[in-house]
Design goal:
With 614 residues, this protein is of the alpha/beta class. It has 4 domains: 38 residues; 209 residues, Aldehyde Dehydrogenase, Chain A, domain 1; 204 residues, Aldehyde Dehydrogenase, Chain A, domain 2 (3-Layer(aba) Sandwich); 45 residues, no CATH class. The strands form 6 sheets. A 7-stranded mixed β-sheet has the order 12-15-16-11-10-18-19, with helices on both faces. Strands 7-6-5-8-9-21 form a 6-stranded mixed β-sheet, sandwiched between helices. The chain has a 3-stranded antiparallel β-sheet with strand order 3-4-22. Strand 1 and strand 2 form a beta hairpin. Helix 3 packs antiparallel against helix 5 and helix 11 crosses helix 12. It is globular. Bound molecules: 2-acetamido-2-deoxy-beta-D-glucopyranose (NAG) (3 copies). Belongs to the aldehyde dehydrogenase family. Keywords: Membrane, Oxidoreductase, Transmembrane, Transmembrane helix.
Length: 614
């Protein structure tokens, strides 16, 4: 009996694997071949644009088995030298190097160099821009592990976190722009005026011109992707870019910029198109209010955003502001596969030790799913293994946090919740790793019975804490989800599409994934939040066009030009006005002819116009 049961299970398992394999691998492959060879997508191979090979030696610190000296205690600031930034690995406390902060004079110089380089770049062909992006894409693909190791070394995350959150999303973005960028940025014919008399004469279009020197001020949580995303979009739109990286990840940012410069040089382009600056907050205002910057993309926290936007307003520099969130996952009671779903929630919460702009901050469940998830999470989260997976041989589930400066804040949030009735199932405090006592680890934490009276319900955690919240019904779930000051991304899971689709419409949020988590980011949709999560969009079509001056062009229709006709002011309304009444009547009839829906009124007005027009 046991043997039969076992065989049956094995058969079932194999069957499941092959269905998954069919849906995830075979079907997409068939679709790819279909779109490539049958419908001839624009991704055609073009010899002129074929990517070049770039070789750069990987830094010693990112090699396997690197032994660096440990700092006691590790800190990015040096008391004796306030104009230096010290870099170290947050997972091990190992020293990575010291950099001079960028001085104000150096900022001026770098912005000037970028401005100069951009003059030629502004009118470069899309084919050379694609060649550059393809060269980068090739480099990234061929060096996935090295790039991941560099990102891990500087941020303390695991290699798997880096491969998904840094490498894959960057490859997606670069390839999406290679395939779609030119279509989005070429002059765009518009319908023109609704008045048919004007429409007949005028053709209208929008031309996308680069803004000049743009800037990206980026957070440390994805040192590779957060840096590469704006660089890829800015270069493809014909801009030069000055990136201000976080003080926390100077070591890796310097190396990634070197890589981009190497790609530019290999393609015969000006490496000054890309610049890097880093400084402590006291000099940040000088940068953000610099008159040489034509646009700022800010990715970071709300308090810093206030300072950036205020400072940028001195030059009226336009900003796109992408801040954090208090993203929720709403789980209805009819979810069929709780096993698949709980894994999605765990990844969404604990990837990069919870330091994600679109990480899951709240899991809002209807009563039945609440009980089920409570059981599953209680079993799974306590088994998470912490460490530095680029240094040790055994498997690691979660890496370190970037710094130890928020541990007490996280502990306060947890204590506040527990004092108001939450149940701390596992974790809850800083973790002293036996092998890496200088590493910044926090225990993976599960809090259940969380409700809206607790600070942790409203304040962004940005750490490895899963909070479970019970809702009576769908209305309460939606209202709980909507009730924070943020509105970045949300997910909703259930079996009845009509119902979950309706919930998606009721969420006050910049992005929603239906029966999925965060894939809106990968899909190159416009990305950005509402409420205190920021404004403006990067990513997708809007992300490219927002880095452009959308120049509106109006001109006579080509056939008028062909006949040598030029539109001009009709005599009745030209200076000096000969007859006031006639002039008034002329424009009145023009309005009737253009906008009156009744055909006879139109015809009568046109008759009057024809009579008075000469
Ligand atoms: C850093 O600044 C010091 C002077 O304060 C200078 O001597 C040194 O060369 C600088 N280092 C680098 C890498 O620029
Ligand atoms: C959010 O949810 C509440 C409660 O269901 C609802 O009244 C509100 O309209 C929703 N949308 C927004 C934009 O707040
Ligand atoms: C889904 O929900 C809608 C609205 O409540 C209902 O009318 C419909 O019958 C449901 N569909 C299924 C398949 O249960």
């Amino acid at each position: 009996m046991i043997a039969i049961d076992f065989e049956f299970q094995q058969w079932q398992w194999q069957y499941q694997i092959s269905t998954t394999f069919f849906i995830c691998v075979i079907l997409p492959t068939l679709y790819y071949l279909y779109s490539k060879y049958i419908t001839k997508s624009p991704n055609n191979y073009n010899k002129l644009e074929s990517p070049l090979k770039v070789t750069i030696p990987i830094p010693e610190e990112a090699r396997p088995h690197w032994k660096g000296k440990r700092l006691y205690p590790p800190s990015i600031k040096l008391d004796e030298e306030p104009d230096k930034i010290q870099s170290y690995c947050p997972a091990t406390g190992q020293y990575l190097g010291t950099s001079n902060v960028t001085t104000r004079e150096e900022m001026d110089e770098k912005i000037e160099l970028a401005k100069h380089a951009q003059i030629n770049w502004a009118s470069s062909d899309f084919s050379i821009r694609r060649k550059l992006l393809k060269t980068m894409s090739r480099y990234i693909l061929e060096n996935q592990e090295n790039l991941a190791r560099i990102a891990c070394r500087d941020s303390g995350k695991t290699k798997l976190d880096a491969s998904m959150g840094e490498i894959m999303v960057t490859l997606e973005k670069v390839n999406w722009i290679i395939n779609n960028g030119e279509r989005i940025l070429k002059p765009n014919q518009r319908v023109g005026p609704s008045n048919f008399l004007l429409k007949f004469l005028k053709s209208a279009e929008v031309r996308y011109e680069p803004l000049g020197v743009v800037s990206a001020i980026i957070s440390w949580n994805y040192p590779f992707h957060n840096l590469m995303g704006p660089i890829i979009a800015s270069l493809f739109t014909g801009n030069a870019i000055v990136v201000k990286c976080s003080e926390q990840v100077v070591w890796s940012s310097k190396w990634f910029i070197k890589m981009v410069k190497e790609c530019l040089k290999t393609c015969g382009l000006d490496e000054n198109l890309v610049q890097l600056v880093y400084c402590f907050p006291n000099d940040a205002d000088y940068f953000t209010s610099h008159c040489g910057l034509n646009h700022i993309t800010f990715i970071g926290s709300k308090p810093v955003a206030h300072a950036v936007v205020a400072s940028a307003s001195k030059q009226l520099t336009p900003c796109v502001v992408e801040l954090g969130g208090k993203d929720s996952v709403i789980v209805l009671d009819d979810v069929k596969d709780m096993n698949a779903l709980n894994s999605v929630i765990l990844r969404g919460t604990f990837q990069s030790a919870g330091q994600n702009c679109i990480g899951i901050e709240r899991v809002i469940c209807l009563p039945k799913s609440y009980e089920k998830l409570c059981d599953i999470f209680t079993k799974r989260i306590k088994d998470f293994r912490l460490g530095s997976d680029i240094d040790q041989l055994d498997e690691i589930d979660m890496g370190a946090m970037i710094s130890d400066n928020r541990f007490s804040q996280l502990e306060d949030l947890i204590n506040d919740a527990v004092s108001k009735g939450a149940n701390l199932v596992s974790g809850g405090k800083q973790f002293q790793h036996p092998n890496y006592p200088q590493g910044h680890y926090f225990e993976p934490t599960l809090l259940t019975d969380v409700d809206s009276s607790m600070r942790i319900f409203h304040e962004e955690v940005f750490g490895p804490i899963l909070t479970l919240i019970k809702a009576r019904d769908i209305d309460e779930a939606v209202s709980l989800s909507n009730s924070t000051e943020y509105g970045l991304g949300n997910s909703v899971f259930g079996s009845n599409f009509t119902i979950i689709n309706d919930i998606a419409n009721r969420l006050h949020s910049g992005n929603v994934a239906i029966n999925d988590f965060a894939t809106f980011y990968v899909a190159q949709l416009p990305f950005g939040g509402v409420k205190k999560s920021g404004y403006g969009k990067f990513g997708g079509e809007e992300g490219l066009t927002s880095l452009c001056n959308c120049k509106s062009i109006i001109m006579d229709k080509p056939y008028l030009r062909f006949f040598g006709v030029q539109t001009s002011i009709p005599p009745p309304i030209d200076y000096p006005i000969e007859d006031d009444k006639k002039a008034w009547n002329f424009v009145r009839c023009l309005n009737i002819a253009g906008y009156d829906p009744r055909i006879w009124a139109k015809i009568k007005a046109i008759k009057t116009l024809a009579k008075s027009g000469n």
